[in-house]
Design brief:
The complex is a heterodimer of chains A (about 150) and B (about 80). Chain A contains 2 helices and 6 strands, in the order αββαββββ. Chain A has a 6-stranded antiparallel β-sheet, with helices on one face. Chain B is globular, with a radius of gyration of 12 Å. In chain B, helix 1 crosses helix 3 and helix 1 packs across helix 5. Chain B contains 5 helices and no strands. The mean pLDDT of chain B is about 95. Chain B has one domain: ACP-like (Non-ribosomal Peptide Synthetase Peptidyl Carrier Protein, Chain A), CATH 1.10.1200.10. The chains are: A alpha+beta (about 150), B mainly alpha (about 80). The interface between A and B is small, with 10 and 9 residues.
Chain lengths: ~150, ~80
Protein backbone atom coordinates (compact mmCIF):
# COMPACT_ATOMS: atom_id res chain seq x y z
CA UNK A 1 0.00 0.00 0.00
CA UNK A 2 2.67 2.50 1.06
CA UNK A 3 4.87 1.01 -1.68
CA UNK A 4 2.28 1.86 -4.33
CA UNK A 5 2.02 5.46 -3.10
CA UNK A 6 5.80 5.80 -3.29
CA UNK A 7 5.91 4.42 -6.84
CA UNK A 8 3.27 6.96 -7.88
CA UNK A 9 5.35 9.75 -6.34
CA UNK A 10 8.51 8.90 -8.27
CA UNK A 11 9.61 11.66 -10.62
CA UNK A 12 10.53 9.17 -13.39
CA UNK A 13 8.73 7.65 -16.37
CA UNK A 14 9.67 5.13 -19.06
CA UNK A 15 12.14 4.70 -20.61
CA UNK A 16 13.92 5.79 -17.43
CA UNK A 17 11.77 4.33 -14.69
CA UNK A 18 13.58 1.38 -13.11
CA UNK A 19 11.34 0.31 -10.23
CA UNK A 20 8.62 -2.36 -10.60
CA UNK A 21 7.84 -3.20 -6.99
CA UNK A 22 8.90 -2.44 -3.43
CA UNK A 23 8.75 -5.54 -1.24
CA UNK A 24 9.85 -4.05 2.09
CA UNK A 25 10.35 -0.53 3.38
CA UNK A 26 11.22 0.75 6.86
CA UNK A 27 13.00 3.79 8.30
CA UNK A 28 16.25 1.85 7.99
CA UNK A 29 16.07 0.41 4.50
CA UNK A 30 14.21 -0.77 1.43
CA UNK A 31 13.99 -3.84 -0.82
CA UNK A 32 12.58 -3.74 -4.33
CA UNK A 33 12.94 -5.16 -7.81
CA UNK A 34 12.97 -4.42 -11.52
CA UNK A 35 12.78 -6.74 -14.57
CA UNK A 36 14.70 -5.61 -17.64
CA UNK A 37 12.55 -5.77 -20.77
CA UNK A 38 14.03 -7.13 -23.97
CA UNK A 39 12.96 -3.88 -25.63
CA UNK A 40 14.93 -1.51 -23.31
CA UNK A 41 16.41 1.23 -25.51
CA UNK A 42 20.01 0.80 -24.37
CA UNK A 43 20.30 -2.85 -25.50
CA UNK A 44 20.41 -1.66 -29.12
CA UNK A 45 23.79 -0.06 -28.50
CA UNK A 46 25.23 -1.92 -25.49
CA UNK A 47 26.60 -3.94 -27.15
CA UNK A 48 26.21 -4.38 -30.93
CA UNK A 49 24.53 -7.80 -31.37
CA UNK A 50 25.23 -8.66 -27.72
CA UNK A 51 22.83 -7.06 -25.24
CA UNK A 52 24.14 -6.59 -21.68
CA UNK A 53 22.72 -4.12 -19.13
CA UNK A 54 25.11 -1.14 -18.81
CA UNK A 55 26.70 -0.61 -15.39
CA UNK A 56 25.37 2.95 -15.26
CA UNK A 57 21.84 1.57 -15.62
CA UNK A 58 22.43 -0.88 -12.76
CA UNK A 59 23.57 2.09 -10.65
CA UNK A 60 20.37 3.91 -11.70
CA UNK A 61 18.24 0.93 -10.55
CA UNK A 62 20.10 0.93 -7.21
CA UNK A 63 19.65 4.69 -6.83
CA UNK A 64 15.95 4.77 -7.79
CA UNK A 65 15.00 1.91 -5.45
CA UNK A 66 17.64 2.25 -2.75
CA UNK A 67 17.83 6.02 -2.41
CA UNK A 68 14.88 7.79 -4.03
CA UNK A 69 12.13 5.40 -2.87
CA UNK A 70 13.61 5.26 0.62
CA UNK A 71 14.05 9.04 0.67
CA UNK A 72 10.40 9.63 -0.25
CA UNK A 73 9.40 7.22 2.51
CA UNK A 74 11.59 9.02 5.06
CA UNK A 75 10.11 12.37 4.03
CA UNK A 76 6.54 10.98 3.97
CA UNK A 77 5.19 13.30 6.62
CA UNK A 78 6.31 16.40 4.76
CA UNK A 79 5.10 15.08 1.46
CA UNK A 80 1.94 15.88 -0.47
CA UNK A 81 0.65 16.14 -4.04
CA UNK A 82 1.70 19.73 -4.42
CA UNK A 83 5.10 19.25 -2.82
CA UNK A 84 7.37 17.15 -5.01
CA UNK A 85 10.78 16.01 -3.82
CA UNK A 86 13.85 17.53 -5.44
CA UNK A 87 16.55 14.95 -5.87
CA UNK A 88 20.17 14.85 -6.96
CA UNK A 89 22.72 12.07 -7.00
CA UNK A 90 25.87 13.28 -5.28
CA UNK A 91 28.26 10.32 -5.24
CA UNK A 92 28.56 6.61 -5.69
CA UNK A 93 31.23 3.97 -5.33
CA UNK A 94 30.15 0.63 -6.79
CA UNK A 95 31.91 -2.68 -7.47
CA UNK A 96 30.52 -5.01 -10.14
CA UNK A 97 30.70 -8.79 -10.07
CA UNK A 98 28.31 -10.28 -12.68
CA UNK A 99 26.55 -9.17 -15.90
CA UNK A 100 22.77 -8.76 -16.22
CA UNK A 101 21.07 -9.81 -19.48
CA UNK A 102 17.70 -8.79 -20.96
CA UNK A 103 14.58 -10.26 -19.26
CA UNK A 104 16.41 -10.77 -15.97
CA UNK A 105 14.90 -9.58 -12.74
CA UNK A 106 17.14 -7.81 -10.24
CA UNK A 107 16.51 -7.33 -6.54
CA UNK A 108 17.89 -4.29 -4.73
CA UNK A 109 18.58 -4.28 -0.98
CA UNK A 110 19.44 -0.92 0.54
CA UNK A 111 20.40 -0.05 4.12
CA UNK A 112 20.46 3.53 5.36
CA UNK A 113 23.84 4.72 6.65
CA UNK A 114 22.56 8.18 7.52
CA UNK A 115 19.96 10.78 6.56
CA UNK A 116 21.01 14.18 7.85
CA UNK A 117 20.67 17.72 6.53
CA UNK A 118 18.80 16.36 3.46
CA UNK A 119 21.62 14.01 2.50
CA UNK A 120 20.82 10.31 2.31
CA UNK A 121 23.68 7.83 2.18
CA UNK A 122 23.01 4.10 1.78
CA UNK A 123 24.82 0.80 1.44
CA UNK A 124 23.18 -0.80 -1.59
CA UNK A 125 23.41 -4.33 -3.00
CA UNK A 126 21.89 -5.67 -6.23
CA UNK A 127 21.20 -9.40 -6.71
CA UNK A 128 20.11 -11.45 -9.75
CA UNK A 129 17.29 -14.05 -9.84
CA UNK A 130 19.64 -16.73 -8.49
CA UNK A 131 20.31 -14.41 -5.54
CA UNK A 132 23.91 -13.92 -6.66
CA UNK A 133 25.52 -10.57 -5.90
CA UNK A 134 25.74 -8.50 -9.11
CA UNK A 135 27.03 -5.22 -7.68
CA UNK A 136 27.28 -3.35 -4.41
CA UNK A 137 28.51 -0.12 -2.92
CA UNK A 138 27.63 3.19 -1.30
CA UNK A 139 25.37 5.76 -2.95
CA UNK A 140 24.57 9.26 -1.70
CA UNK A 141 22.07 11.84 -2.79
CA UNK A 142 20.36 15.01 -1.67
CA UNK A 143 16.59 15.01 -1.22
CA UNK A 144 14.38 17.80 -0.15
CA UNK A 145 10.80 18.86 -0.45
CA UNK A 146 10.35 21.77 -2.77
CA UNK A 147 7.91 24.22 -1.23
CA UNK A 148 7.06 25.72 -4.59
CA UNK A 149 4.39 24.13 -6.77
CA UNK B 1 40.95 24.30 23.07
CA UNK B 2 42.50 27.33 21.35
CA UNK B 3 41.16 28.72 18.10
CA UNK B 4 44.40 27.78 16.35
CA UNK B 5 44.07 24.17 17.46
CA UNK B 6 40.47 24.13 16.25
CA UNK B 7 41.55 25.42 12.86
CA UNK B 8 44.23 22.73 12.63
CA UNK B 9 41.66 19.98 13.38
CA UNK B 10 39.24 21.52 10.89
CA UNK B 11 41.95 21.62 8.26
CA UNK B 12 42.54 17.86 8.64
CA UNK B 13 38.83 17.16 8.31
CA UNK B 14 38.24 19.27 5.19
CA UNK B 15 41.36 18.08 3.34
CA UNK B 16 39.80 15.03 1.59
CA UNK B 17 36.99 17.16 0.16
CA UNK B 18 38.74 20.29 -1.12
CA UNK B 19 38.97 20.99 -4.85
CA UNK B 20 41.25 24.05 -4.70
CA UNK B 21 44.70 23.25 -3.35
CA UNK B 22 45.97 26.85 -3.31
CA UNK B 23 42.99 28.10 -1.31
CA UNK B 24 43.53 25.17 1.07
CA UNK B 25 47.20 26.03 1.58
CA UNK B 26 46.20 29.62 2.34
CA UNK B 27 43.36 28.59 4.64
CA UNK B 28 42.43 31.21 7.24
CA UNK B 29 39.33 32.28 9.17
CA UNK B 30 37.93 34.11 6.15
CA UNK B 31 38.12 31.03 3.88
CA UNK B 32 34.72 30.06 2.49
CA UNK B 33 34.10 26.32 2.07
CA UNK B 34 32.09 26.57 -1.13
CA UNK B 35 33.49 29.64 -2.90
CA UNK B 36 37.17 29.24 -1.97
CA UNK B 37 37.74 25.54 -1.31
CA UNK B 38 35.13 24.56 -3.99
CA UNK B 39 33.58 21.91 -1.74
CA UNK B 40 30.11 20.79 -2.90
CA UNK B 41 27.11 20.92 -0.60
CA UNK B 42 26.93 17.12 -0.24
CA UNK B 43 30.54 16.93 0.94
CA UNK B 44 29.96 19.87 3.27
CA UNK B 45 27.49 17.62 5.11
CA UNK B 46 30.18 14.92 5.45
CA UNK B 47 32.51 17.53 6.92
CA UNK B 48 29.84 18.52 9.47
CA UNK B 49 29.29 14.85 10.42
CA UNK B 50 33.07 14.43 10.80
CA UNK B 51 33.20 17.53 13.01
CA UNK B 52 30.43 16.11 15.20
CA UNK B 53 32.48 12.93 15.72
CA UNK B 54 35.77 14.76 16.23
CA UNK B 55 34.41 17.14 18.90
CA UNK B 56 31.60 14.96 20.26
CA UNK B 57 28.99 17.66 19.60
CA UNK B 58 25.64 17.75 17.83
CA UNK B 59 25.05 20.31 15.14
CA UNK B 60 21.42 21.31 14.49
CA UNK B 61 19.90 22.32 11.14
CA UNK B 62 20.13 26.05 11.84
CA UNK B 63 23.84 25.92 12.79
CA UNK B 64 24.51 23.74 9.77
CA UNK B 65 23.08 26.34 7.41
CA UNK B 66 25.44 28.96 8.84
CA UNK B 67 28.57 26.81 8.59
CA UNK B 68 29.82 28.24 5.35
CA UNK B 69 33.26 29.53 6.31
CA UNK B 70 36.13 28.56 8.59
CA UNK B 71 35.18 31.43 10.92
CA UNK B 72 31.50 30.43 11.24
CA UNK B 73 32.44 26.76 11.71
CA UNK B 74 34.94 27.59 14.49
CA UNK B 75 32.41 29.93 16.17
CA UNK B 76 29.76 27.21 16.15
CA UNK B 77 32.15 24.53 17.46
CA UNK B 78 33.34 26.87 20.25
CA UNK B 79 29.74 27.58 21.27
CA UNK B 80 28.80 23.89 21.28
CA UNK B 81 31.90 23.00 23.30
CA UNK B 82 31.09 25.75 25.80
CA UNK B 83 27.52 24.41 26.19
CA UNK B 84 28.61 20.87 26.96
Amino acid sequence: MIGKTILESLPYQPPFLFVDELTKITDNGVTGNYTFKESEYFYRGHFKDYPVTPGVILIEVMAQIGLVCLGIYLLREKFSDIKKPQIALTSNNIDFFLPVKPKQRVNVVSEKIYFRFNKLKCKVQLFNEKNQLVCKGDISGMLKINDKK
Amino acid sequence: MTREKLITSLQKIVKPYIQDQIAFENLNEETDFINDLKINSANLIDIILDLEDEFDIEIDDESMENMLSVKSAIDIIENKLAES
